[in-house]
Amino acid sequence: MTETVGAGAEASKTSKKRSGGGGGTRKGLRVQRVFTTEGVHPYDEVTWEKRDVVMTNWRDGTVNFEQRGVEFPESWSINATNIVTSKYFRGAAGSPERESSLKQLIDRVVKTYVASGTEHGYFASPADAEIFEHELTWMLLHQVFSFNSPVWFNVGTASKQQVSACFILSVDDTMESILDWYKEEGRIFKGGSGAGLNLSRIRSSRELLSSGGTASGPVSFMRGADASAGTIKSGGATRRAAKMVVLDVDHPDIEEFIETKAKEEHKIRVLRDGGFDMDLGGSDIASVQYQNANNSVRVSDEFMRAVESDDKFGLRARTTGDVIDQTEAKPLFRKMAQAAWECADPGMQYDDTINDWHTCPESGRITASNPCSEYMHLDNSSCNLASLNLLKFLSDDGSFDAPLFAKAVELVITAMDISICFADFPTEAIGDTTRKFRQLGIGYANLGALLMATGHAYDSDGGRALAASITSLMTAVSYRRSAEMAGVVGPYEGYARNAEGHQRVMRKHAAANELVRTLHRNDANVRALATDEWKRGIEIGERSGWRNAQASVLAPTGTIGFMMDCDTTGIEPDFSLVKFKKLVGGGSMQIVNNAVPRALRALGYQEEQVEAIVDYIAQHGHVIDAPGLRSEHYEVFDCAVGERSIAPMGHVRMMAAVQPFISGAISKTVNMPESATVDEVAEIYFEGWKLGLKALAIYRDNCKVGQPLSTGKQEKGEAEPEKVVEYRPVRKRLPKKRPSQTVSFTVAGAEGYLTAGSYPDDGLGEIFVKLGKQGSTLAGVMDAFSMSISVGLQYGIPLEFYVQKFQNLRFEPAGMTDDPDVRMATSVLDYLFRRLALDYLPYDKRAQLGIFTADERSAQVEADYSGGDSEGDGVDLETLRSTVDSGGTQVAEQSADETATSGDEAHTTTELVELQLGKAADAPLCMTCGTKMRPAGSCYACEGCGATSGCS
């Protein structure tokens, strides 16, 4: 927790050289301990272990990364370890300079931040700086938050200290500006980041050049930029170039822009049907244009009202601003929906809504966004991001710890602002704008998991109220801290000119907070604290100004979500109820997400019910007909895909609930089923405008040829790659009423009873053995032994395995029995498992184990005596089989077969869901490791190696 010392008019006159603000005497921030303990370093509070990171391409088994003996906390997953080691550790592989411990990585980043904060006057004393260092270290160590990927790539290294992942460029109506656009974009792509821009200043193809010729129009220049992006990507980048291209709805070339990618999709289908390789990464896909960018139309309120009233809308010349054509608004809007239905582009950006929440209107309009649409501010600017792991603030009693969350936000937003003091930028124009306006993008991940864990359906009033309250609190604390920092090191340079506009937006946020209707104790407590924070922040800001023009966004959190071991990314719901967990020794196992049992407990289910429901989900992948689960609770477990997937409008409603509390926007694509219609797409886009969203994109399943649906296809004759997959056993419980039989027995004079319970049609499921007097050691040991065997049977261990292990086991009592089928036994266990084999195993399996009934042995002797099966005198195999009851099929065999079948081609959570639920998740292959990716916001993320298709 931090507080200001000497905040106010005098303190706000900090040196411009030191802070980027006004001029005067520095006082600094006091920092209090929140997570750490005085005298104990955060590293000393965790247990560390050495691990080997060996990452292979599952397709051919080749090793694409290896580093052994890396040091990580015991609590970190193998997946997080692999991703951090392979992507964020710096130094040449195999060299002594290569980082080998998470301590080195965190120290490299945190110490750079603290040194810069000290240099630029953020801390009141060296002791405050040390506490700040320990607090940041503790939160990173315990996966409470993470900076965006460029921070981990660059900070504290010999590279340029680039900390931003999001960039907005600008282009004017001159050839020099267009060529600069190509160059600047290429430089950003080369560094692994993405950029967006608006092409609406470029004159249309219906306007004349100064020379008298006809202009090419923006769409033609998009072709060159697309080729450039594709070339740079193929020249060594590990992911597709991430870029956003925006065009205003009143541009005369808007129809051509809308149809650009849809027409290319038609071309792809024709070429595919003609035998060309048009899969993503295929040899012929390079002939298709415009595939390296996301396209969005910037629509105005005027246009949307024209759509609503079915009026005409004017298209304006770029050079004069005059209306040069009138078009029917409704058919044009439907063309957008039709194109999006066909190929997912264009998305929608709502211009008037965006600029109504603009803190710096005197410095220019917001015309574009970054590639994932969460960062929206001035042209030639950038934003560095950080995201908090919301599940870390969920208390054991199911309450969200709002005060602790507020303290964490304080610390993180302070660190983010410090980074601008030492950051480098790809162009001077971007650096200049960012230093003057200091845009930040704090956000969160694991919202979907948090809602489920607290018993809220994602698409519910309660879920939206909690999400809105948390988002409001996050942004309120961020701006309050920003105002306090302005009192210490000065407001952002552009604040004086935009003071009125900035204050107006702060009041809009506070007013929206008052409109949140809370339904439970959790969201009521969070919103109450948010109300106080907005009030405090506005009061301080009106005196001191604000340090940052923008504070918050909701990013996709692809790679850093894996780094924090999050179940869900950004604002997304849970993707599926089951996922794969990597194991230390290699391979993986299928597990049910941790939020599921927490949700069941929050809903009031007892532990035995929780265990039964979790076992059912592990086996089936969904909750429908789960034992004991009430149908009214099904919605809590609805996911992005599966038998009960969240309706598209449910995603839109959640975005609308949190949008009033975000400085920027939300990275999210609304997934729609393949059966969705053009009218449904149009409805989504129209409701997005009505509900006050800033941007919206949709994706209809299977609408693109260039993105494969699965990775299991192989050419004839191609060897199936060896898979190392370890499956989690599934417990199949017996029904409350089940058939059983009791056998009394005697072994060498020792009497006992064996009771065996079975599934109605699937064989043995439990045993109870009574041997010795009640309360004796022998009786207790046999009870424990019986329970152990029963649980093993229910988890799918084959009965023949137990028989093989325990038959012929020798210890006293041993000798004659009173069972005609088992005349001699070498021990009680030898007798018990021979008896169970006779009662529950089919003849074939017993024959392999050498266990037969008395009748079967007699038949064999008779067959041998008669010389075999000749002339009908002998006994053939089928006759022997008919002499016994086979006892039903083995549960474990069926369970194992089903598991093997369901997981035969599954290598990621996405593929597991496809195979189990029959629902395809349209996603590309990872360009790094070949694994199928999964959605993360409006991008895709690889849970195999952490690579993303956009910003991280």
Which characteristics define this entry?
single chain, 952 residues, alpha/beta, Anaerobic Ribonucleotide-triphosphate Reductase Large Chain, 3-stranded antiparallel beta sheet, 30 helices, 41% helix
Write a structural description.
By secondary structure, the protein is an alpha/beta fold. Helices cover 41% and strands 15% of the residues. Strands 5, 6, 7, 8, 9, 12, 13, 14, 17 and 18 form a ten-stranded mixed β-sheet that branches. A three-stranded antiparallel β-sheet has the order 19-20-21. A two-stranded antiparallel sheet has the order 1-2. A hairpin with a 6-residue loop joins β3 and β4 (63-73). Its cofactor is adenosylcob(III)alamin. Residues 164-699 form the Ribonucleotide reductase large subunit C-terminal domain. Residues 885-902 have a biased composition (Polar residues).
Distance between the termini: 27 Å
The whole-number mean of residue pLDDT values reads 85
Largest sheet: 10 strands, mixed
Total domain modules: 3
How would the global form be characterised?
globular
CATH topology of the largest domain: Anaerobic Ribonucleotide-triphosphate Reductase Large Chain
Tally of helical runs: 30
Radius of gyration over all CA atoms, rounded: 33 Å
CATH class of the largest domain: Alpha Beta
Q: Can you give the helix content as a percent range? A: 40-55%
| pLDDT < 50 runs, ≥5 residues | 6-25, 234-239, 707-726, 868-903, 917-921
Strand content: 5-15%
Backbone structural class:
alpha/beta
Instruction: Give the total of beta strands.
Output: 25
Annotated CATH architecture of the largest domain: Alpha-Beta Barrel
Region (Disordered): 1-29, 885-907
Enzyme class: oxidoreductase
Biased composition (Polar residues): 885-902
Keywords: Cobalamin, Cobalt, Disulfide bond, DNA synthesis, Nucleotide-binding, Oxidoreductase
